[in-house]
Structures are given as structure tokens and as C-alpha cells.
């Protein structure tokens, strides 16, 4: 696996990791020593050993920091941050990759060509043995096809997939009297009602009748009370990248 933040290059490839043209895989054969069966234990010796086992384990000292008689617990594993290592729920056929998105490139049986990469502000990525590629505006499927063409110069019949692990290029903002104000990723198309719901909805003292959507120099107005009753649904427009939804 490789992880990169800028330009990098691979100096060499470990022999036998398989797949590069003109380099046969290295095979190994490991043969262990022959085993000879031991003499069988007598029934009496086996019984005596089983009887003594509880006493032997009872004499084992407790680990440091654990009181005698206290039940030992399995060591806790480190918890991952929410969404860490998981692909964002984007449609690989329609989602357009943009600056600051984080991608996972996967090439089957080629770990040296697989890894995480961030899209630069200019829409480019830099990957080993290929160099710079413009990815802004491509879908994950389109980028996978483009990478397959590049990797075919290095690997026989590469199987390539692209996942968007973090959406950072498209976002909207909730501010004012909402329960969870802040910045939200615009992963899939959503309406104003859905965006507000993701933010916990308007707070108790919010003016729900005149919520403002700021889109550049344009202003749109949204009446929460009407929409949740199924009235005047035309005002429930789709949120666009960079929208500010303000609840007074």
C-alpha cells in the first residue's frame, strides 16, 4: 500500500510480488522436518495432569494492576473515527470527483499501485509510476477506466476500482437556530427539508416560516411549517454546492 500527499515515485518493486511485465513470480517450497510420534501417555499420567491443572493456574500471578481474583478482560481495540476507512455513499456512475476529495485506488493483486490519494485544488492527483492525472469532473467509474489504460502499460490486464472515501469538494452550511449547525458534505442530491433534517431541524425558538437559502447573490425562502404539511412544495428546492441555509 502507498500513501501520498504530493509527488512520489517507487524506487523498486519487491521481487515476486507478482504482476509486472517481464518479471516472473518467485515460488518457494517450504518443507518441514518429519515428525515422529511420541510414546503414548499412560492413562494414570494423563488423569494426574488433568487433576493438577486447576491448581497450577490458580498459582499464576495476576497481571500488574489487576487484583487477585479479578476477572481478566481482553485488551480493548482502538476505535476508528466515524466513517474512517469506509467509502462515502456516492454513486460511482454519477458522482463528479472534485478538489479536496479523498480517493482510494485499488488494483487487484498490486498493493504497490493501490492506496489513498487526495485531489489537489487544481483537480490533479499524483500516483506512482504514472505521474499526474486530471480527475476533476470525472466519475469514479470514468477514473477507473482511465487508470486501467495507464496501468496496462505496466501490468497485465489490471483490474482497477476507485472509491470516494471522503467527500470534501461539495458541501453546504446550516447556520442560525438549528439544532446542529455547521458544514455538511453534499454526497447525494438532497432538498432543503432533508438538509435541515440532517441538522436536527430548526430549534424551538426558530422562525420556521422564513428560512433563507443563500446561493451566491440569489436568495430563496423556505417555510418549514408549510412543507412538512405538504403545502407549497415548490419551495423545497434541491441544495447546491456552497449553499448557506440560515434559520433566524
How much is the average pLDDT?
A: 78
Helix-strand string? EHEEEEHEEEHEEHE
Shape: elongated
Largest sheet geometry: 5 strands, mixed
Strand-residue proportion: 15-25%
Distance between the termini: 49 Å
Poorly predicted regions are 5-18, 23-40, 53-58, 62-86
Structural class based on helices, strands and sheet pairing: alpha+beta
Helix content: 10-25%
Number of helices: 4
In angstroms, what is the radius of gyration?
30 Å
Do you know the CATH architecture of the domain at 85-166? 2-Layer Sandwich
Please give the order of strands in the largest beta sheet.
8-7-11-9-10
Q: What is the CATH topology assignment of the domain at 85-166? A: wza like fold
Q: How many extended strands?
A: 11
CATH class of the domain at 85-166, named: Alpha Beta
Provide the CATH superfamily of the domain at 85-166: wza like domain
What structural keywords apply?
248 residues; wza like fold; 11 strands; 21% strand; four-stranded mixed beta sheet; alpha+beta; five-stranded mixed beta sheet; Outer membrane lipoprotein wza fold like
Describe the structure in your own words.
By secondary structure, this protein is of the alpha+beta class. Among the domains are: 85-166, wza like fold (2-Layer Sandwich), CATH 3.30.1950; 171-247, Outer membrane lipoprotein wza domain like (Outer membrane lipoprotein wza fold like, Roll), CATH 3.10.560. 16% of the residues lie in helices and 21% in strands. The protein has four helices and eleven strands. A five-stranded mixed beta sheet has the order 8-7-11-9-10, with helices on one face. The chain is elongated, with a radius of gyration of 30 Å. It starts with a strand and ends with a strand. The relative contact order is 0.13.
